């Protein structure tokens, strides 16, 4: 059973209308790998009672970072937390992305960037990144991403002078005709469904799924996802799966 840690907030910065970067002091005991997640609990509050899962966006000595979108009650309350407040954190949980041997393709849909940034940073200049957002102002960490990726392609659903107009899977189809590199992806379910149509049967494609969770540790079956071998728990069997295994 993972321990609960009381962690001090270093910053909780608003990046866009509804996206925040939360940086907290990381207890030395936490060793993480890209693709894993933590459960964050809003301290003494009874409402919301359950912790919320967030991918580890980045983890450096003494600091662990989460990138989150305000969705409902929990994340709205989280967005009001300030520097020097405390939060209760547990983890890391879940299966991580198997490490790439050479170059690899990353597909990030919107806030899905939160799950794949750490992987690209861990293997700098090896990722061909395909990053899809709705509009220009939602493009996050442009300079940092250029720094850590080999090549970067951005798609926006709304017109923007320097991006591909359309959905990110279309951009992948256009640019990746001859590439058979392993793919690592995270994004909304609709993006994963499209991606499944693009991936060749011979191509390795790891995706992080973000089902709703309750216990986070495999006990409640609140997070199951359908696979070729029956239902699996996202919190312990995932969140990273080979897309060919999933019935999307
Ligand atoms: C393994 C994992 C990693 C995640 N990593 C991140 C991350 O790095 N950054 C981030 O912003 N979010 C992430 N999520 C999603 C995040 O946990 C939810 O957005 C959050 O729990 C919503 O809590 P809330 O109290 O604000 O919303 P609630 O009040 O619980 O729900 C509000 C709305 O959000 C929707 N919602 C709730 N949970 C999810 C979910 N898991 N996926 C999609 N929609 C949801 C609900 O359907 C509802 O419409 C992750 C989820 C999982 C399972
Ligand atoms: S959240 Fe309880 S089993 Fe996954």
Overview of this protein structure:
This protein has a seven-stranded antiparallel beta sheet with strand order 4-3-7-1-2-6-5. The chain has a seven-stranded mixed beta sheet with strand order 11-10-9-8-12-13-16, with helices on both faces. The chain has a two-stranded antiparallel ribbon with strand order 14-15. The protein has helices at about 75-80, 115-120, 140-150, 170-175, 190-200; strands at about 5-15, 20-25, 35-40, 50-55, 60, 65-70, 85-95, 105-110, 125-135, 150-155, 165, 185, 205-210, 225, 230-235, 240. The chain is built from five helices and 16 strands. With about 250 residues, it is an alpha/beta fold. The protein has a domain at about 5-95: Translation factors (Elongation Factor Tu (Ef-tu), domain 3), CATH 2.40.30. Bound molecules: flavin-adenine dinucleotide and FE2/S2 (inorganic) cluster. The site of FE2/S2 (inorganic) cluster has 12 residues, from loops.
User: Largest sheet at a glance?
Assistant: 7 strands, antiparallel
CATH first level of the domain at 4-93? Mainly Beta
CATH architecture of the domain at 4-93: Beta Barrel
Individual helix count: 5
- What would you call the structural class? alpha/beta
Q: What is the helix content? A: 10-25%
Number of strands: 16
Oligomer: single chain
Strand proportion, as a percent range, falls in 25-35%
Strand order of the largest sheet: 4-3-7-1-2-6-5
The CATH topology of the domain at 4-93 comes to Elongation Factor Tu (Ef-tu), domain 3
Shape: globular
Measured between the Cα atoms of the first and last residue, the distance is: 31 Å
- The H/E string reads EEEEEEHEEHEHEEHEHEEEE
> Mean pLDDT, as a whole number?
92
CATH superfamily of the domain at 4-93: Translation factors
Computed over alpha carbons, the radius of gyration is: 18 Å
Ligand species: flavin-adenine dinucleotide, FE2/S2 (inorganic) cluster
Domain FAD-binding FR-type: 2-99
Family: Belongs to the PyrK family.
Cofactor: FAD; [2Fe-2S] cluster
Protein name: Dihydroorotate dehydrogenase B (NAD(+)), electron transfer subunit
């Amino acid at each position: 059973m993972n321990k609960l840690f009381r962690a001090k907030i270093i910053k909780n910065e608003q990046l866009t209308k509804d996206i925040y970067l939360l940086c907290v002091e990381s207890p030395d005991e936490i060793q993480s790998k890209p693709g894993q997640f933590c459960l964050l609990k809003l301290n003494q509050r009874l409402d919301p009672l359950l912790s919320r899962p967030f991918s580890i966006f980045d983890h450096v000595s003494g600091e662990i970072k989460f990138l989150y979108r305000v969705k409902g009650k929990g994340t709205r309350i989280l967005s009001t937390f300030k520097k020097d407040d405390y939060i209760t954190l547990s983890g890391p949980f879940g299966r991580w992305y198997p490490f790439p041997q050479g170059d690899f393709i990353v597909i990030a849909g919107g806030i899905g960037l939160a799950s794949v940034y750490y992987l690209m940073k861990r293997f700098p200049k090896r990722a061909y990144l395909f990053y899809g957002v709705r509009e220009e102002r939602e493009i996050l960490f442009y300079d940092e991403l250029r720094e850590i990726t080999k090549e970067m392609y951005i798609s926006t659903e709304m017109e923007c002078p320097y991006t591909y107009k359309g959905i990110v899977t279309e951009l992948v189809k256009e640019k990746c005709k001859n590439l058979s590199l392993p793919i690592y992806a995270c994004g909304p379910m609709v993006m994963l469904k499209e991606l499944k149509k693009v991936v060749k049967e011979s191509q390795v494609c790891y995706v992080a799924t973000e089902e709703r969770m309750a216990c986070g540790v495999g006990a409640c079956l609140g997070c199951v996802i359908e696979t070729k071998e029956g239902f699996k728990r996202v919190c312990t069997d995932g969140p990273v799966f080979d897309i060919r295994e999933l019935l999307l």
